[in-house]
Amino acid sequence: MGDGRDGRHADILGGFQLMVSKTSKNKSAAIETVKFLTSPEIQRVNATTRGFAPTRPGLYYDSAVLKANPFFAILRDVLFNGAVTRPSTVAGSRYDEISKAYFTAVRQTLTGQKSADTAVQELEKQLEGLVSRDRSTMQ
Q: Pseudo-torsion of CA 28, 34, 35, 38, nearest 10°?
């Protein structure tokens, strides 16, 4: 949680990262499989029988899901009122560069190469540079 005026705790939820390879020999079938596995019906089954947290917001209000997993009502409140978009969503095509910048700053701090204050200040400048490059290419 940051110290700033808008600082708040952030919550996360992992996932199963279903995707279709661009080199797939049968993309249509693979896409249909992913659609099936992420459908509300299958997510309901997975939530009620396996305890998997759904990615479909409506399922956090589903009576069968909540009966099988009463904790999902609490999780729903946390996710809908406290979760933050994954950095990969916000970072887009710059995800690798941003991840490397964070990793480097953390490593330099943990190994004593730089103070935390210095590492954060340099990281901030790096991230601002990446964002300003994105803005200039959008114009």
A: 180
Q: Can you give the length of the chain in residues?
A: 139
Is 78 in the same domain as 92? Answer: no
Q: What is the DSSP letter of 13?
A: -
Burial 70-108 (b: 16+ CB within 10 A, else e): eebeebbeebeeeeeeeeeeebeebeeebeebeebbeeb
Reduced to 3 states, what is the DSSP secondary structure of residue 2? coil
Q: For the whole model, what pTM was predicted? A: 0.55
Q: Determine, yes or no, domain membership for 15.
A: no
Condensed to tens digits (0 to 9), the pLDDT of residues 4-46 reads: 777 766 665 566 678 899 899 999 999 999 999 999 999 999 9
Would 49 be classed as within a structural domain? yes
Whole domain around residue 103: which residue ranges? 88-138
